Amino acid sequence: MDTSPHKSDFVKVNGIDLHYLDWGGQGETLIFLTGMGCSAHLFDHIAPRFTDKFRVLALTRRGQGESDYPETGYDADTLIDDILDFMDSLSVDKAILVGHSMAGLELSHFAVTYPTRVTKLIYLDAAYDRRENKAIFEDYPLKEIEPPNVKKEYSSLEEYISFIKLIRPDLAKIWNESWDQSMLYDLDKNEEGQFIEKDTSAIAKAMNETMDNYAPEDAKIKIPVLSFFARNDNRDFLPDYLTDEQKTAGMEFFRNIWLPHVDENIKKFQADIPHAKVIEIPNGHHYCFMAAEQELVYDEMRKFLLE
Questions:
Q1: Domain presence at residue 137
Q2: How many domains does the chain have?
Q3: Contact at 8 Å (CB) between 18 and 78?
C-alpha cells in the first residue's frame, strides 16, 4: 500500500513522538505540513518530485496520523514549537515550509515567531482567516443532516473507506493509495476485531478553537510567499444521498455565502502580504496538490522555489 520512496520514522519533541517522512534529496530543506486530521502520507506523490533540488520532509502534527495523541498542546505556540524541535532534532537550521489547510496557521505563526529559521512559505489552500468560518457555517442549511446507515464498527478497512467516500464524494473523486494509507491511522480495533474510528473529538475541538481564535499575522511576514486558493462552489462536496432540494440549498450556500468569503480572504491576504504571489484556481479542489490541478500546483511551486 505504501509505495512512496521515503524513510518513515519518529522524532521525540516536547515529550511526545511525532511521525515524519523523509524522501532524502540534496539542497535546502523543504518541509510539508499536513492539514487537520491528515497524515504526512498524503504528500507521497508530490513531495518526492522535489528531491532533485531539495531535501524533502513531511511532518504529521500531534493528535493525528501515526504521531502521539496527547490531551494538550494544540495551541498555536506549542504547534510551532513542535516544528522547531523537529527541525532541531534533524539538524535543520533553516527550511522552506509548505502547508495545507490548517497548516497555514502554523506557517504564518512560525514565520513571525522564528523568522531566522524559515526562508520561504507556500500555502496550499491554507491562507484563511478562520475566525469567521464558524459563524458562516452556522447558517449552512445541511449541517443537521446525517448520512444514512451510520455505523460504529466496520468489518474491514475497505468498508470504512467506502463509507468515507459516500459522505465525502469530493475525496472519492481524487482518491489514491495515499488515502488508503492515511485511513489506517483513523482506526482502532475493538475486542471483536472490528474497526472503529478513534475518538479524537476532544483533539478536534482544541484544534478548531485554536483556528477560530487565531488572528493572522500575515502583515508581519517579509520572506517570499506563494499562496494557492482553490475557488470552488463545492458541488463535488454534496453527497448523493441528499435530495435535489437539499443539493440546491447547499449549492446556493456555497455560491452566495462561501465564495464571497473566499474572495474576501484572498483580498485580505494580498493586502497583508503585497509581495506574495497568489494563484487562484477556478474550480480547484481543497486538496489541490492531489487533484486535477496538481500539475499546475507542482509547476508553480517549482518555479517559486527555484527563483
A1: yes
A2: 1
A3: no
